[in-house]
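Any chance you could type out a protein's amino acid sequence plus the matching C-alpha cells because I've never seen that pairing?

——
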Amino acid sequence: MTLSAEPVAVSFDDVRAAARRLDGVAVRTPLVEVAALSARAGVPVSLKCEQLQPIGAFKIRGAYNAVSRLGQSGARGVVTQSSGNHGQAIAYAARMFGLRAVVVMPASTPAIKVEGIRRHGGEVVFAGAIRSLEQQAKAEEIEREEGLVMIPPFDHPDVIAGQATCGLELVEQRPDVAHVLVPVSGGGLLSGICIAVSALRPSAKVIAVEPAGAPKLTAALAAGAPTTLERTESMADGLLTRSIGRLTFPIIQRVVREVAQVTEDEIAGAVRFLHHEAKLRVEPSGAVTTAAILSGRVRLDGPTVAVVSGGNVDPDLFHRLAE
C-alpha cells in the first residue's frame, strides 16, 4: 500500500498542523552563532543544529509526521528506502506507534546508520546502490508481498510538511533572517523550508547547497524538470540522490534562485572547522552549508541561518576529517 504520489500542494496550514503533531517529539533545535563563521562571512551567521534531534538528524520531522498520519488505517507496518537518516527516523517513529519498520539500504551505508536503525527496532535489508533501481525494486517488493505502507524519504506531502517545521522554527527564532542555506538531496527539507520561509519571511533568500559530485538540483533547474544523473559521488552520503523529487521540485523551483556546489575538500574543511571552532560533531552532509560560507561560494549581505542537517557520521571518517 503506497501513500499517494500524485502532485499535492503542501500548504502553510499543513506545516502548522505538522508542528502540532511534532510537539514533544522533535526537538526545537537551537540557533547557534559561531563567531569565527560570522567573521568569515562578514554577517551574523547562525547554525540551525538539527544534529540534536532524537535520531541525530532533521529526518524525524517528516518521518514522524507521515507515520502519525496513518491513523486508523490498519497498517501492519511501514517500509522505505534510505541511505541512513530517514531509515532511522522511520524506525524511531514506527516503534512509537507499535508498527513494524523495514528499511532497504545500500550495502555501502555507514555502519553507524545501520546500527541506529536496528537500535530503534527497525529491520534492515540491503539492496543496490543509493537510490538505485535495485533498491527501489526491493522496497516495492516488500511493500507488495508483506502489505506494508511505503513512506518515501522525501517525495511525499506529509514528509515535506514535517521537514518544513525546521523552516518555521528558524524564522521564528531569527525573524530578520536574510539568507537561509539548506543542504539538498531529494529536496524534502529544502522544499519544506521554501514553503515556511516564503510564507513567513518572503524577502529572505533560500540558497540550496549540494556536493559538486551530486549536482541533481543544478541539473533539474537547467532542464526545467527533475533529471536523473548517471552517478553521484561524495563523502556527503546523505546527499547522493541522483534526482530531485517530482513533488519537491516545483516547490523549490518557485523559490530557489541560487544553488551553491561545494567540493570534497571544502566539505572536509567544514567538518573540521565545526569541530574545532564550534565543538560540533557534524556529518559531511550536514556541513555543506558551512562549506559554502567558508569557501566564499555564496554572497551574504544580512543575517544568515545555515541548516546543519545531521550528525550521524562514521567515527573513523570523522576522526580523519577532524584531525
Notes: DSSP finds 13 helices and ten strands in the chain. The first strand starts at residue 31 and ends at 33.
